[in-house]
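Technical annex, item 7. During the second reporting period the consortium partners agreed on a shared format for inverse folding records so that results from different sites could be compared directly. Each record opens with the tokenized structure and is followed by the designed sequence. A conforming record, contributed by the partner at site C, is shown below for reference.
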């Protein structure tokens, strides 16, 4: 096994290593987004249908939420008083 790894090593060096913590947007599934926001999966689906939930993207048939968009949505919902709309 070690010999095959050494034989392939030059190929490994030519492939750039990509960190998971780059500037690329991390997309969350609805389940992950609901856990991130601490709301139910059902609430998130209903808010998506009503159009008053966090923004989402649809790559194909799936639904995904960017972490950045979720944080911006949370900030836009910040209130200082219960009388604010």
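Designed sequence (site C submission):
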């Amino acid at each position: 096994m070690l010999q095959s790894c050494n034989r392939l090593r030059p190929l490994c060096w030519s492939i750039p290593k990509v960190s998971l913590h780059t500037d690329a947007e991390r997309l969350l599934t609805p389940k992950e987004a609901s856990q991130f926001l601490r709301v139910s999966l059902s609430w998130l689906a209903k808010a998506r249908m009503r159009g008053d939930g966090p923004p989402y993207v649809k790559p194909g048939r799936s639904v995904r939420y960017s972490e950045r968009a979720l944080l911006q949505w949370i900030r836009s919902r910040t209130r200082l008083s219960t009388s604010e709309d």
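The radius of gyration is 20 Å. The helical segments are 2-14, 30-37, 41-50, 67-76. All partners now use this format for quarterly exchanges.
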